[in-house]
Design brief:
With 193 residues, this protein is an alpha/beta fold. 35% of the residues lie in helices and 17% in strands. A five-stranded mixed beta sheet has the order 3-2-1-4-5. Helix 4 runs parallel beside helix 6. The termini are far apart.
Length: 193
């Protein structure tokens, strides 16, 4: 089966990433969870996964809406590691890979800020893939009406992300969206009777 992706991904591993954060502003809010599905070139099979809870540097800055989505509470994050350690583990797996995420500009902004503030060298390619826009371009002509991961998954008949988001679940779903975009699989919504 021929897979079709933008040329920046040709022959490279793809680091499909999802982050949970304490809010929307990189540089002010913190990464509190890192999820990664590393996909092999050409096959897009998952060759490695990473799921890490990260200790927030500024827990008092957590946005109420963000904590409702990601379920952050100090008890569940008791064993979390520091951001520098988390990004070192992430960088070990992703050196030379192309970064990808659903709404990649958001996750890329946070991860770039994290690498900058911790001094960890990432080695990722400087361009990224956005599954939100790839899915929109591929499936909007076939009836996709919204770009959120929830809506794209519903359109593609993928199981929804749990109500309390975990970064690894988001990464796995974004990886599957990328696979569907690459093979051109289209599932048209049928009206319910």
């Amino acid at each position: 089966m021929q897979l079709k992706l933008p040329s920046i991904a040709a022959g490279k591993y793809i680091a499909v990433t999802d982050l949970e954060t304490t809010g929307l502003d990189a540089g002010y809010h913190d990464i509190i969870e890192v999820g990664l599905c590393l996909l092999a070139p050409r096959t897009l099979k998952t060759v490695a996964e990473l799921s890490l809870k990260v200790k927030p540097k500024h827990p008092g800055r957590i946005d109420r809406y963000a904590s409702k989505i990601n379920g952050y509470n100090s008890e569940d994050w008791r064993g979390a590691i520091g951001l520098g350690s988390a990004l070192e583990k992430y960088a070990e797996l992703t050196r030379g890979a192309v970064f990808a995420a659903h709404n990649a500009k958001f996750d890329w902004g946070f991860i770039q800020d994290g690498f900058s503030t911790t001094g960890v060298e990432h080695g990722l390619q400087e361009r990224y893939l956005c599954t939100m826009w790839l899915a929109w371009n591929k499936f909007a002509p076939h009836g996709l009406e919204r770009r959120s991961l929830k809506e794209v998954c519903q359109f593609l008949r993928l199981p929804p992300e749990p109500k309390i988001h975990r970064a690894i679940n988001g990464a796995r779903l974004a990886a599957e969206v990328l696979r569907r975009v690459a093979v051109g699989a289209v599932t048209v919504k049928l009206p319910l009777k």
